[in-house]
Amino acid sequence: MRVVIAEDSVLLREGVQRLLADEGIETAAAVENGDELLDAVIEHKPDLCVVDVRMPPTFTDEGLRAAIECRRRFPGLPVLVLSQYVEERYAVELLAGGASGVGYLLKERVADVKEFVDAVRRVADGGTSIDHEVITQLMVRSKKSPVDKLTPREREVLGLMAQGLSNTAIAGTLVVSDGAVEKHVGNIFAKLGLEPSNSEHRRVRAVLAYLDS
């Protein structure tokens, strides 16, 4: 796997690069702003981009904007966004273009090597990895939406789906059977009005509904 890292902090940029190298993951380029990120993606065509939300010159949303532009130019390009704080709007905006191959983690998660590397590999493989703190805050501000129809357990299952967990992993986390999880997932799809589709994966659509609720 080859990645491009976009992070203005030299310490974090080099730290992530070294951490990935220890896991056998090559860094094709490590840059410090959005323009350099786009150039690096064009040049190296990486398997994944690890991007800070806030970068020079204004330190607002340059990284996110660059990531969205990269995905516009290279549809399906996996992007894992790192942020110092929970910024809900950015998480929803990134996912609005399609939840396949996207992740949003707080920077403090990098300290948990296994969790971070798992997220890197999951997103690179086309999965989703959303920080549980982001999910928690989105739930707190949730207003009337189809998600409100879900039972507490179904919301819990959907939250774990949003983190990128498989049914088996969800079953292990909740200490229930795979069959019970499959039943909850089926109920979630039904309550959200997600009929089988050849063009969109219902799991992704359910996560989007959850994050936009």
Automatic annotation (TrEMBL):
Ranges of residues in domain HTH luxR-type: 143-213
Database matches in SMART domains: HTH_LUXR (SM00421), REC (SM00448)
Keywords from the UniProt entry: DNA-binding, Phosphoprotein, Transcription, Transcription regulation
Record-linked PROSITE patterns: HTH_LUXR_2, RESPONSE_REGULATORY
Entry-annotated residues carrying 4-aspartylphosphate: D52
Gene Ontology BP, a term: regulation of DNA-templated transcription
UniProt keyword annotation of Phosphoprotein present: yes
Annotated GO MF terms: DNA binding
Domain Response regulatory per the UniProt entry, residue ranges: 2-122
Highest taxon in the source lineage: Bacteria
Keyword DNA-binding in annotation: yes
PANTHER family: TRANSCRIPTIONAL REGULATORY PROTEIN NARL-RELATED, TWO-COMPONENT RESPONSE REGULATOR
Protein name: LuxR family transcriptional regulator
